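Incident log, structure service

09:12 report received: a user says their structure output differs between two submissions of the same chain.
09:20 pulled the input from the user's history:
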Amino acid sequence: GSEGGPEAAGGSRKDEEGAGERKTTEGESVEEDINGMDSVLLGNYQLHRKETNNTAIPPLFEPLQQPVVLPRNDAEGGGKDLERLAEAHLRFILDKLVAEEGVERRWSEPIFRLCQTAVRRVKASVRCGDKLDMRAYVKIKTIPGGQITDSRFIEGVVFRKNVAHKKMMRKKKDPRVLLLSSPIQFKGEHVTQGGGNRMSSLNTLLDQEQLHLAMVVDKIVNLKPDVLIVQHTVSRIAQDALREAGITLVLNVKPSVMERLARSTGGHILRSPDYVENSLLKRDQLLGFCKDFEVKVFRDGRGRRTTLMFFESAHTHRHGTVCLRGAPKRDLKRVKRVLRAAVRVAHALRLEARFLQDECATYLEKDFRAMMARYEEAKTEVDALCDKKKSKCRAAAAGGA
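09:34 re-ran on a clean worker, output below:
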């Protein structure tokens, strides 16, 4: 069946129109060039009527010629041709974006493979309130160094962070993840002594802090998480207590990353540990789960370190991350812009192809051949554009020298 149906196809158009209206930075300018380029299948295929209980159902779009009844079994053979045309269109757009961004041609095939993998593995459900823009659930991380072949797609979340203490666990299979949005700390208060308001002594405050943090840590430990993700800060006393309990702590995580972790792991973001006692959900339902947790350190050619935290999801199709490697940071940023645009185009083409298959659409042979021939001719134009870009770069380098 189609992924989102006609509503998904229509929603995709609205998202694309909105994307063209909003202001963009220089890094996002490439996305404006693809508006309208990812809607090709509907204009090049003829929709025929399908027969249900000997009653012809009119199509959603007016056919180019007199409609004929097409049995579903005959329409299934046209699905591969739909996919071939969508793939050819995606390659054409991708090659053009690669040339315009000044990215080396050797990146074309890896980008095509990664964006196709991303749109196949990550799925958005309109019924669950998900966005139609697939880029909200497919993030891209640039990791300088390594080889292009090291670039890969991961079903889960990857972000730049390290554990709070070097002695905390950095790798775990099937961990239980607890997400907390509030800080874990003690707020000193005035204590009433002798009938008047006086500042409490330092020892009293320390005792209160120890007692308060011990209660908070006990509530967390009772949930038995392996990894605790906190959006804000955590007191040093609480950090030491969590480390002794064998819980890995991650501090100061962005709200957007917290939301991605909640979606990927299936957990809930708790406002405070006290929420556990008042919640109607079971304790296991409050925690998130993932297949693998690991902290990795990468080094580029200059010896610079990049620490990344990997949460590979046990809940498939919810969130994905593409890790790009094989070039310096500046070059990877250009590759990232091209890949972001390619993900949007690939998802729109996938929805259109599925929709046409559900409507028992078949291609016009002459139109199909003409389109494929156009894409073959376009390769020459793209090659010429690449040569022109290279000439400009060489001229600029010679002028600077």
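09:41 both user submissions now match this output. Likely a transient worker issue. Closing.
09:42 reviewer note: The mean pLDDT is 77. The CA atoms of residues 85 and 372 lie 7 Å apart.
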